[in-house]
Structures are given as structure tokens and as C-alpha cells.
Amino acid sequence: MRIDKIKVRRVLALVGIVLLLAAMLVPAVALARAGGGHVGGSSGGFSGGSSGGFAGSSGGLLSGSSRSSGGGIGGCCGSGFVVVIVLIAVVIWVIISMRKGGGSSGGGGSEIFTPPAGGQMPVGDPFFEIKAADPNFNTEMFFGRVNEMFIAIQYAWMNRNLEPVRRFLSDQQFSVLNNSVQTDYVAKGQINKLDNIHIDHMEPVEVLKQGDYDSVKMLVTATVIDYTVDERTGALINPKELGDGKTPTTFQEFWTLMRKSGVQSKMDATITKCPNCGAPVTDGNYVKCAYCGVQMNDPTLDWVLMRIEQV
Questions:
Q1: Is 305 buried (19+), middle (13-18) or exposed (0-12) by CB count in 10 A?
Q2: Do residue 45 and residue 185 come from a single domain?
Q3: Using CA atoms, how far apart are residues 56 and 113, in angstroms rounded to an integer?
Q4: 60 contacts 22 by C-beta, under 8 angstroms
Q5: Do 200 and 290 fall into the same domain?
Q6: What residue numbers bound the domain in which 143 lies?
Q7: Domain tally for the chain?
Q8: Residue 192 bridge partners (DSSP)
Q9: What confidence tens digit (pLDDT) does each residue in 90-124 have?
């Protein structure tokens, strides 16, 4: 059973008071005996010595004989000695009471951590709080969802049509990507090719609670052969700067996803299904479900990709 630091200091202070009283009372006891005297004298101290002290071999409060001519152990059995014994007993009683009480007292103090039901907090698990509210949450499945989103966005980007990924994109992030595609490629008659694209590594760099929502920021590291071609001829455009169509490059992005805290994960969930009714996402119905009518990119229902940042 652990006793908190504040209470330990209180006990030590009480012990100090007892020892101080003992130091004051012992001279009184000795002076009351025939012959007078003082504890320890020049040949001993409170911590003892070869010829005197609190626990010395030839003198002191607990020794077998007194340095005064009229002393002995019987001379120490006066009222002062009894008071010291009583105070020591009080200290012992306080310590035992604190142990039985689990280290708590009516006066408050620091709380002792109690592990949550089912075991202690997993060390290094950034998703612990999410899992506590959503037992179905699975780290591998979450990473799989991010990978699914990543690949879908890349193909939508190459096809210059971001509508199919609106199912899981926030309206703001959709606008950013769509405007870029329309301005940089559609308007110029160009296509940005992303061959052999795949994620090499992903890891959460920030998991926090924002109001009623859980927010997960992922660092995604991926490799791709990135180049741009003319939509009519297929010829490479500015290969020195925009890619030669052969050389793979590695890039990193921060992805921030949000979902309402406490929403329960569905084991068969996918970006191709409605997060509410589970019906398939149909062509032309990428925002509202064609079956139940809910807005599918709603973080109160499922994970929504809120923001993509280039590293």
C-alpha cells in the first residue's frame, strides 16, 4: 500500500517533534534524580557513542545505568519517560491507521492512479482513448482505411475527377483538390500520371480530442513515378521538372482525419459503402447515399479526411 509524499512528510515531522520532546524531557528527568546531570555529556551525542548517547553502551535514556550517582533504569520511569513512550505509540498508531486507510485522509491529497478495468494502459498506444470508447477500433483496419483513401485519391487525381472520393473527403479539402486539378491540368489539357504509387510507411504523429471529435494526424510516406503528359498526344511535358516517366520519387504528406468520439467502428466498413446503412456507393451519388439519404462525408458517422498537407 502506498502512502503519498505529503503524508510521509507529516509523519516525519511528527517523529521529529517526538525526538525534540525527548531531548527536552531527558534533562528534566535526569535533573529530577539525585545528583542531577545531562544526557550524553561530552562523551556522547544523540546518535550514540562509545560512552554515552541515546543508545550508548554506558549512559543515556535507554542505557542500563545512569551517569548520575543516584540513577538507574528505575530513575527513568518517571512521568517524562512515560510521555515519550506515549508519543512514540501515537506515531506508530498514525502510521498503522494510514496504511489501513490506503494512504488517504479527510484532508485530501494527491490521488492514487487506478488502472482502467481490463488492465493497465498499453505503453505507446496512441489510440488508447479511442479504443476505450470504441472497442471495435482496430489499428490495422484504420491504417488499411487510410491506404484505401490514399489510392482512391491518386486515381481520382489522374482521372481529373475528384467526385468519386467525396464520400470521405471534407468539403473544404475536396474544393482544394478539385480546384487544383481543374486549374493545373484540365484547363491546360494535361494529365498528371502517378505510376506504381504505393505507401511505404505511415504513422500517427498526433492523436487528440477536439471538442466532441477525435482527430488523428498521420504522416504518410509514399513512392511514385510522377510525370505529366499532353492529353491529346501523350507526350511528356517538361520531363526535367515534371518527371521523366521512369524515375521513382518519394514524398511525404500529413493527413488529418476526424470522427465523432464514441462512434463504433464497423468491421466491414469501407469507402465504397455508406457509413450509415452500409449500402454501396453508387455512381453519381458520392455525397448523399442513394438508399438512406444521409450525407456520407459526415464525421459524426465515420472517419473523414479533413486536410492534406505537403511536407
A1: buried
A2: no
A3: 45
A4: no
A5: yes
A6: 128-310
A7: 2
A8: 228
A9: 666 656 555 544 443 333 333 333 333 434 444 57
